[in-house]
Amino acid sequence: MIVLSGASASGKTEAAxxxxxxxxxxxxxxxxxxxxxxxxxxxxDYFFVSKERFEEMIKEDLFVEHTLYNxxxxxxxxxxxxxxxxxxxxxxxxxxxxxxxxERIVTFYLSTSEDxxxxxxxxxxxxxxxxxxxxxNDRKIFASQNIPSVNYRIDSENKTIEQVADEVYRLxxxxxxxxxxx
Length: 182
Hints:
There is one protein chain. This protein is α/β, with parallel strands linked by helices. It folds into two domains: 1-28 and 83-182, P-loop containing nucleotide triphosphate hydrolases (Rossmann fold, 3-Layer(aba) Sandwich), CATH 3.40.50.300; 29-80, Guanylate Kinase phosphate binding domain, CATH 3.30.63.10. The protein is 41% helix and 21% strand. It is built from six helices and nine strands, in the order βαβββαβββαβααβα. The chain has helices spanning 12-23, 51-59, 91-99, 114-123, 128-141, 161-180; strands at 2-6, 26-27, 31-32, 47-48, 63-69, 72-77, 85-88, 106-111, 152-155. The strands form two sheets. It has a five-stranded parallel beta sheet with strand order 2-7-1-8-9, with helices on both faces. The protein has a four-stranded mixed beta sheet with strand order 4-3-6-5. α1 (12-23) crosses α6 (161-180) and α4 runs antiparallel to α5. It is globular.
């Protein structure tokens, strides 16, 4: 499984999309208690469950990681861990996946300077004040001492999304080949 993490606008979500379109890497489906939006489909965009069911799932130890955000739960289940699958995750989620000590889970941290990330946020249509707030939050959350050990760090600043996805895929395949040769 490919686990992608990084600060806002580091390229992780777009790289995951490119991995799907170019290499057939399937996106892991996470679970949430938030209401389904127009054009979303249960089992495609998220697994939509009630708050009560989510809390039961926590007690049953079904999640790799979960969080409460804006009054709704979000989490990724252990059942979604599989080869040729990817998940885009926050830093706490990255720590949770790393702690599983499963060699088939290959972790990536994408790094990009604040200036480039700010420019990307504005180019994708984020409001200036929202972009500045996200950068400020990321400055604390993604401080170097908070980033766990990962299999690979990729500088995504001067690469296209396709180049990032190609590098992730190459390193993932290299790791999986090394595992199968043991």
